[in-house]
Amino acid sequence: MEKLDGLPYLDAVVKESSRLYPSVENAFREATKEDVIPVSKPFEDGSGKVMKGIEVKKGDIFMISMRTLNRMEEVWGEDAELFKYVFFFYRM
Fold it and tell me: What is the pLDDT of residue 87?
């Protein structure tokens, strides 16, 4: 394990590969209680009502797209779709 910990390039490639190509595409969750999920920006629902959060009831099941989260430009920057560590290797 110590030898693996001493391989920062391998660690970077594994992490970046996992970000772009997660082993689980989607995660499903069930709400255990009534709650409101906060959102970063208000949005309009299907009826045109402006919402500041997503209301969930106990027992609601929802899907979280890991692939989408791991490629969001708001989180990862404009090059979110790129394998970022490849540029580091070419500069060496």
Answer: 54
Counted residue by residue, the chain has a size of: 92
pLDDT tens, position by position, 3-40 = 888 888 888 888 899 999 999 999 999 999 999 999 98
Q: Are 50 and 44 in contact (CB under 8 A)?
A: yes
59 torsion bin: left (phi>0), alpha (psi -120 to 50), beta (else) = left
Q: Could you give the CA distance from residue 36 to residue 39 in angstroms, rounded to a whole number?
A: 9
Residue 19 dihedral angles phi and psi, to the nearest 5°? -65, -45
Q: How far apart are the first and last CA of the chain?
A: 26
pLDDT above 90: percentage of residues in the chain: 65
Count of C-beta atoms within a 10 Å radius of residue 52? 10
| CA–CA separation, 58 and 56 (whole Å) | 7
**This prediction's pTM:** 0.67
